[in-house]
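The aim of this short unit is practical: by the end, you should be able to scan a pair of folded records and say something sensible about each. We start with the first protein, listed as its amino acid sequence and then its C-alpha cells.
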Amino acid sequence: MIDLTPATLAAIGPVAFVAAALAAVTGFGGAAVLLPALVAAFGVRAAIPILTVAQLIGNGSRVWFNRRELDLQVVGWFALGGVPLALAGGLLFAAAPLKPLTRLLGLFLLSIVAWRRLQPGPPRRPPLGSFAVVGAIASFLSALLGSVGPLMAPFFLAYGLVKGAYIGTEALATVVMHVTKLIAYRQATVLGTDVLLAGLALGPLMIAGSWTGKRIVDRLPERVFVALVELTLVGAGLLFLIRG
C-alpha cells in the first residue's frame, strides 16, 4: 500500500499544477517535473503508474482545450503502431532495467535538437505513415519510462503542427498511449486501487494547469513557441543523460 495521506497529496499538488501548465505550453516536460516528486513520495514502481493516470487526465484536458485544431489522421497512424507496443512495454515494465534506456533517450533528444539547428534547410516533413513508427517506439518506451513526450515532439513539429494544433494532436496521441499502458499495468498487477486513486486525486490540478498553459500558448508568437520547445528538449535530454 502507498501513502495517500492528505499531507502527501497536498505536497505533490502544486508540483502537478506546474507540470500540467508546462506540458500545456510545450507539449511535454510535465513528467520531468512531476515524476521526481512522485518517486520521492511513492517509489519508482508506483510512481510511473500514478504518473500515467495523472497524465491521462492532463492530456485529456489539453485535447478538449485544443479540440478545434486536432489532426486526427496523425493520431490514427500513431495509434496503429502505438497500441500494440504500449501493451508490450507495459507488460515488461515490472522487470525492465530503466536507467540505460533513459540515458539513451537523453542522447537521442540532444542529437535531434542539434540536427534541427545544424541542417542547412528547414526540417524535412515526415510522411503521414511514419507516425505509426513514431507511435510504436514512443509507446514502448513510455510504458517503461513513464513519459517520452520529448521524443515525440520533433516529429510533430517537423510535420508542421505548431501551437494549439501541436499541443492538442500530441495530447490525443498520448491519451491513446496512456489508456493502453494502464490496461497493461493492470494486467502486470502494478496498477492497484491505491495507485489509481492517487493519480485521480491529482486530476483537478492537472486540468487547472492545462487551462493555464493554454492561455499562455495562445499568446506566444510561433517562433518563440518553437524555440521554447527546443530549449525544453535540451533540458530534458541533459536530465535523462546525466541522471538516468
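Turning to the second protein, read its sequence before its C-alpha cells, just as you did above.
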Amino acid sequence: MAVGIFDSGLGGLTVLDAAQRRLPDVEFLYFGDNARAPYGVRDAEDVFQLTNDAVHQMWARGCDLVILACNTASAAALRRMQEAGVPEGKRVLGVFVPLIEALTERQWGDNSPPREVATKHVALFATPATVASRAFQRELAFRAIGVDVEAQSCGGLVDAIEDGDMILAEALVKSHVDALLRKMPKPEAAILGCTHYPLMEEAFQAALGPDVTVFSQGNLVADSLADYLTRHPQMLGSGEGGYLTTGDASRVSTRATQFLRREITFQSA
C-alpha cells in the first residue's frame, strides 16, 4: 500500500522525508518529473496538463491518494482537477493549506469564517508561476483578514538547487530577500512557497534576520497527512512504494542521495 507524492523535480523530497519520518509504517511512491522541471517557469495550462498526466499515472499504480508536493502544481492544477472531478475512491491534495493553517493558527479542517490574526505582514517566496497564480493569497483569504502579503518571484533558484550549485543558490536567496525587503522592510513571517526552498532555509533565515519567523512545508504537510490518514485509513492505497522519474534515473538518484544524505534509487517512469 502506498501514498503518492508528486513533484516537478527533487524539491518534493523535503516533503517525502518529513512524511517518512512522521509515518514510518506507510509506503510512499515518489514521482519526479525531472525531465520537464522546473514547472515554475511554465504557463498554467502546461503545468496543469503535466500534473494531471502524472497524477493519473500514480492513480493507475494504486496510489489512491496523491500529494502534490509542488507549490506550482498545487497553484495551477489542484483546484482545476478537483472541480473536474476525480475518479471514485481517489484523492489529490496540495501543500498550501497546511502552511496557511499554521500561519493563521487554525486547526485542521476549521471552516469558520476568516478572522483577524496576529501576523499582519507576510513575505512569500515562490516560483514565478506560483506568484502569478495568486493561489496562496486566495487560500489565505478564506481563513484570515487584514494580512498584507508581499510576494517575491525567485527566478533561477530551483535550477540552482536541482543542479547542486549551492553557491549560486545562496547568492540568489540573498538577492531575492533583498528585493523583497525593499518592498516590505519589516516582514513578521516568511513563507517558503516551493518545496525546493527548505533546502535553503538557513540561507533564507540568515538573510531575513532572527526576528522573522520562517515557515517551511515539510513537517506541516507530514502532520496534516498523518491526521488525514487517521480519519481516512482507506486512502492508503494498494500500490507499491518506490521512486520514479521521467529524467535520467542514475543522475536523479545521485542528486536525491545528496539531498537527503541517504541512498535513494530512482527508476524510469
